[in-house]
Structures are given as C-alpha cells and as structure tokens.
Amino acid sequence: MLEVNELSVSYGRINAVQALTISVAEGEFVGLVGHNGAGKSTTLLTVTGTLRPAGGDVLFDGKSIVGLAPDEILRRGIALVPEGRRIFGRLSVGENLKIGATTRKDKKGVEEDMRKILDRFPVLQRYWNKSGAKLSGGEQQMLAIGRALLSRPRLLLLDEPTLGLAPLMVDRVFEILDDLHKEGTTILLVEQNAARTIEVADRTYVLRSGGRIQFQGTSEELAKMGDFETAYIGMG
Amino acid sequence: MIVGSASVVIQYILDSIANGSLYALMALSLSLLFGVMGLMNFAYGELIMSGAFTMYYTHSWGPVGMIAMTVIVVVVMSLLMELLAFRPLRKAGPSTLLITSFALSIALQKLAYMTTNPGIPKTVRPYPWLTQQFEVSGVLMSRLEVIIWVMTIVLLVGMTLLLKRTALGIQLRASTEDFRMSQLVGVKANRVISSAFAITGLLASVVTVLFMLGHGDVRPNVGQGPVLVAFVGGVIGGLGSLPGAALGGFVLGLVLNILQATLPRSLQGHTTMFAFLGVIAILVLQPGGMIVSIRKLRRKRDQAAALSEGAPS
Amino acid sequence: MIKSFERYARIVWTPFFLSILLVITWVVVELNGDIFYQNEAEKLFLRLMIVIGLQIFSGNSGVLSFGQVAFMAVGAYMSALLTIPLEIKKFTFLSMPEVMKSWVFPAHLNEWNGTTGTLAGAGFAILFAAVFGIPIVRLIGVAAGIGTIAILVAMNVFIQQTSSITRGTSTQIGVPQTTTLGSTVIWLVIAIVIAYAFRQSRLGLRLRASRENERAAKSVGVNIAKERYLAFVLSGFICGLGGALYAHYFISFSYLDFYFDLTFITIAMLVVGGMGSVSGGVIGAYFLTFIYVAFQRLEVNGLFDGKAPSGTADLVLALALLLTLIYRPKGITGGKEIPFPTDWSFRWVGRLLRGEIRPKAHSLSEGLKVLGLDRLSSKDKGQR
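Above: the input entities. Below: the structure tokens describing the complete assembly.
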C-alpha cells in the first residue's frame, strides 16, 4: 500500500535520511526502530507532507504523493500520530477529536466512529469538556490516537507513541495497537523500544543513523538472529 | 456647570469604555493573524485607512450604502493583502513577514497620497443625531458611544461563538496553537489563513465605521496611530491568546483615555510614550503577555493546593 | 612579496572599493553644481549612514531593528542643543528645566568645523543605545521587531511632547550649518571601515554564527546577548553620528524627520542590497536612490505627455522592497561583500549571451503558482 523508494531528506546540508526504501502492505503492522537521529521521524514527516524529500519517491496505492499538501495526503488515507502527541492544549478533548474528522463529509460515519472511539477510550468521554493540556501523558496519547482514527485512515503512522509514558501505559499503548491491527488497520510504527515493537509487528525494519537499513525481517526472523538485541544496542 | 465628583468619574469611565472597546476589537484581529501565521500585521492600519476613504467617497449614498460598501472594500482589501503579499511568503520567518507588512503599509499609504489629492482636507461628515450628547442622570452620553458598546459586545460574542461552536472556529484555534499539526489533521492552510484575513477585514471595517463616525478626519495615515496602540495592547495582553489580546487592547484604551483626562497637562502627552516603554519591559519580562502570567499564577496555586492536600506518591 | 601584498590588499579591498565609490559620487555631484543633486546626494549619504548603523546590528545578528532612527534623532537633537548660539537658545528654550539649562546653555561645541558637536551628539546616542540595548538584545524575531518599534514611537512621542527640550512640533532655529558633502563623505568612510572591521572581527564573526544557528553558537560558548549588545551600541553610535550630521546640514529639522518614513527607507535599502554585508547596504542605498530620484524626476518633469502622480517614487520603493522579499530575500548581494578583482568572474555574461542561462527571476508559471492561480487552470495538485 505504501512504498517509500530511495527516499532522501536533508535539513540544509545535513542528510537526515539517505536512500531509504521501505514498504507496508495492506493490513500489515510494520515496525521501524532505530536510535535517536536515525531519521525515523523525518521519514514520517516526509510521508505526511510536512517535509519535502530531496530525492526518491513515496507511493501510496501506487501513486506518488510527494509534493501534496498534508491535508490532501490525509484525505487519501494516511494519518499521523506525531511525536510528542501534539494535542491542541487549548482545545477541549471533544474539540480535539472533532478536528480529527476535518477531512470527512459523512456525518453519520463520523458519529459512529466517534462512538467507537469513546467506547475504546472511556477516559476521553469522561474528560470531554476538559482542555487537552490538562490530560496526563497517557490520556493525551489515547486522544492523539483517537484524533488520528477519526479521519478513518487506511494507514496509521505512529511516531514514538510510548515515549515518556509510565510502564503500565506503555503496555496499554501496545495493547491498543495490537487490537487495531487485529481489526484490520494497517500500521507503521516508529519506536525506540525495539523489543516490544518486534513482538507486536508483523515485520520490522531496523535503521542505522542517516536512514540506512541495518536489518529487516519478521519477528521470528529477527528473533532467530539470536543476538539481535546486542547487535541493535551495539550499532550506535 | 458643577457636577458631582462621582458622576465625573463615571463620565470618564464611560467615555473610556468606548475607546477601549475599539482597541479591543483591533487587538483581537491583530492577535488572530499573529496566532495563525506569526504575522504582526502593520498594514492593518491601512485597512482602516481604505475603509475611511470609502466612507468619505460613499457618504452621499446614505448610511446603509456607505457602511455596506465600507465592509465590502475592507474585507476585499484584507483578502488581497493575503493573496498578493503574504501568500508568496507563507514559509518565511516572522521577521520577514513583519518587514513585508511594514512595506505594504507604506506602499498603501503612498498609494492613497497619490490617488486622493491630499491637498484637500477630507472629513466624513458626522451624523449629528449620533454624536449629539444627551444626559442620563448627570452623565453625558451619545448614541454613537452606546452603539460602540453594543457592537463590541455583539462582535465579541459573535467571535466567541464562531471560535467555540463552528468547525472553522475550532480549526482557527487549532491553527493558532500549532499550525503544522493542524495541517496534519486535515486543516487546509489556505482556507484557514484566508478566513483569518476575512475575519480581520470584517472586524477592521466595523472598527473603521465606528471610529470614523466619531473622529471624521480622513488622511492616508489615519490608521497608523490606532494600530500602534492596538499593537501595544495586544502585546500587553498576550498576542498568542485571543481573549488576552482583546482584554489588553481594552484595558490599554481605557487607561490611556482616563490618564489623558486626569493627568496634569505637562504629562498628558507622554502617556503613549510610557505605554510604549512599558511594552519593551513586558516583552522582556513576560513575553506571553499578562494572560500567561495569570495562568502561571493559577497553575502554581493549583500545584500548591495539590501539594498541601498531598497524598505522598 | 606580491603574495603578501595581495593578502593585505584583500583585507582592505571592500572598504576601499566602497569609499572610492562614495568619493566619486561626491566629486561628480560637486562638479555638477546643481543644488538638487547635491541635496539628493547628501540625503543618500546620510541615509547610507543609518543603513550602515543598521547593518552593524541587524546584518550581523539577524535581529531586525526598527528603532535605529530614534538614536539618529538623539544625535541630531543633542548636537543641535550643544551648538546653537546662546543668544538664540535663550529665546527658543526659555522653559528648559534648570538641570539641563546649566550645561546646555553655555555649551558651544563648534571646534574644528563642528566636529566636537557632532561627536557629542553621537556620544549621547551611545548612551541611549546603551540603555535601550539592555532589553532589546534579549529579544528575537517579532518581539525584537515590536520592541524596537516601541523605541521609535516612544522617542517620537517624547520629542513631540517635550517642547521645553526639543521645541516639540516646531522646527529648530539657529543650528549652525557645519556639515558639508565632503565632511559627510569622510565620516561615511570612517563608518564603513568601522562596520567592515566589526563584521570581519572575531566579535562580528561570532555574532554572525549566532545568526546562522543560535543553538550551535551557544554550544561553542558564544554569549549572544553580550555580542548583540556591543553591536547595538556601536550601531547607536553610527546612527547618532548620522543624526548629528543631518542636523548640521539641513539645520531646520523637526520630529517628523526621524520617524517611519526614514525607518522604512533605510530598512528597504539594507534589505534590497542584502543585510548580510556592508557592501549590500551601500549597493542597496545607491540602487534605491537611483530608482527614487528617477521617479521623482518623473513626477516633476514628466515623460512623453504625462507626469507621474506625486508619491510614485515612494510607492515604487515599497514595491521594490516587497519584490525583493518575495523573490530574493537575501538581497542583491546575497549577503556577500564585493569580491576581490582577481576573483571576478564574467563567465555568466558569456553564458547569458549564449542563452545557456535564463534570468533567475521566477518564470510566469511559477509566479502564478505562488499566487495560487495555477489551480484555476489545472487540477488541484496541492498547495505546497
């Protein structure tokens, strides 16, 4: 469904991502792990149209989406749960969810999805009128995921959703992602927590700095490599 | 005529409220653009100017025609400004935008000098039934003042409803807070910015009509003074926050007017100077404006309360 | 021998080149003798003085200041106060507060053709810049812009309202005319040397590094506030100098001379020429002056059968600034200094003639795209 071909992105003279090639198939749960500065977030921001690539292409359903505005890319079905959640702190929880459905015209469908999301995250129902800034980190993460789901994405991108969360909350986030995947959502998850990612993902790419791929494979394959953990930690 | 001191005070305050109201509306629109695209729009004064000239030239159409035309011209001007000057610079930094708005402001002023024959002094003839003062229990008021209060309240309520209740309003507020993220949830950049300029234009046109009906003189630089004061009010209140800016504009307009009436003559002229010097201090000490500091205080108080209730965790 | 000569020549090349340009202008205008062109040249020189002052602070730090003209006003007013003959002062500054009277009235700093008065005015500008610099250097971006506008407006209100010291809205009387085109050029050459030396000095280099990347500069230990402060004060000095010279050339000046119009034109000159270099300021000042004077002539003399309406020159200036901001934000020079003659390259002329390169200005379709008009014809391809 998503194909990133030889993607290069640079900030001024610094190359953040160099000739990265990854793909995500319909219904798949793909992980993308790597250290800080490996170019993971840059990749996601480029796919969603916030950054422009210096070279390479991004195909969605076989069509290039490079150069499209972020809202247009969202309309085609790619939603991002960004790093640091980026909840609108001054908007209420309800408004944060509603704005997630900006691109949709089907009111009934939105209402239905809203109900589903509130069932899934009852805490959001409870704090409906509270401002986004007042939620805890974990609650904000639910809100960010809910907001992204409300656009009814065909591909959900998540950027370090467990960063800075308490261990219990981390478990909860992976649980949610696992559930979403089982319900048929296609997911591309960027994480630093390699072990957990490999556990839940169908397939995982391991990135070195500069967006070059170190390993890739299914959970079993990566597990079979045995000292994968050491390799991952040792690669710097 | 001898008037009791209480009613003198009330008189000052009533007069000043009208003044403050106009600045509140101006600061509100400045803050809207600042929030959405980091633009400190100097050329806002020229929206007022273009409205003032429209009023002058369409005065013979009668009040309804004049006001309608003024609203149309100012809103169109505002949208053109965005399209021709600011859209090409969408990705430029705030400093560049500031110089641009400065250049635009001067360009429009000069254009007005060129096209309107400034040799002939122009005034929007006042409507006597509007400006004539009448006495209500010892306090003088004019219909215009009452209209300014009502319009300000209507517009502020209208803006609040728009921002809180409509999809566009939610998008505007979201963009004010985090422009990039709002695009990532599907808000169209061009649409939200154009809307902000349209709202700005609408508010500016109302300000122009109310302001000019009271002041009358139409000059190419008629907007420059008011916009500077509104700037300052916005900064004092906090440009990043819409209610903060409106409140800042209101309080500054109110205070300046009261000071002007009460300070000894030798200091009267200096009030604006102190306001501008105060702005420098606020920028350094409390860059978010007073609203932010109030929020901070409240948060500290909440934290202190939480601690004293304190279940150790 | 030749090598080392070239090394030294390279160091002085830019200020030398710019100074020669100024001197040639002066000589040409002096020989021409037309008072109109002499006044225009003096205006150019004095604006250029402010542009150079602005370049020292804004060009190196990247923080735009709208307030430097306020320091120019300080220079003008103070140097006027200290040079107007006592007999006149007695009448025009009757109500001056005693604390000032005691030292302003006896002062008559006209030594060396007014040089002492000029320097005294610039000295007061330094004082003011030193005070206002404390808050301003802590601000960046829009906040700095607003803060410096606040300085400009506050100063203007002060001058208007404090008639006991400034004569308020009335013009000055009795300021001795000691500035000449020649003396202005000499001061300008000094200002250019100072600005260039500052830019090339370690201080200037550190400041420019902070402009490129604040965080990186901090990490290598550049104390930005301190560097900025020094640049701000130095800039205040140059602007004060310009003000003092202005006072003693145009002698009857008022608060109107030091406000938004002058601020605008000097910022336009610097931005159009290229903020990053002293050469940029000079080239911008010359370029806009040419445009300005040409259109002003058009307003007065007309061309073919019609005159341009008055104000055209100012409008064209504003448009030039807008177009520069949109199409060439780094200005004509791109922030570079005039290259050394042996580095000059004319290859681009040949390529231009052979049609290998097209002018870099955005083509029509790109222009339309910028305005969002391309989508009227073709289908939506997104707005970015």
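Note for the figure: Residues 5-309 of chain B form a domain with the ABC transporter involved in vitamin B12 uptake, BtuC fold (CATH 1.10.3470).
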